[in-house]
Amino acid sequence: HAPGVYATPGGHQEFGETWAQCAYREILEECGNDLVINGMKFFHAVDAYYKEEEKHYTTIFMECRARYGQAKNMEPDKSEGWNWYSVANLPQPLMLSIELLIREKSLWIN
Fold this sequence. Notes:
Elements: H1 19-31, E1 36-50, E2 55-68, H2 96-105
Antiparallel strand pairs: 1-2
């Protein structure tokens, strides 16, 4: 819902899914099944208010580890692709929820 900004894989939670199930599904849908991950756990949640759209999103950030494989762009109509970045070198502009995550968790590395 935020074209032209850097975002992580993600999406809406389906009825009956846990946060971890949703995150696994979204990674599979957006990054393909070559990327094998484990250790999915809760990391942080933020409330993002999009005043112009009059929308309020609560974003649940999950943490996991890539065991092996490469992320592929499975939705080229929605994403330019996936790459690994350090927090200090993320592409700009950032999706609001990512800006809030960085601010709230004090993740900037100077």
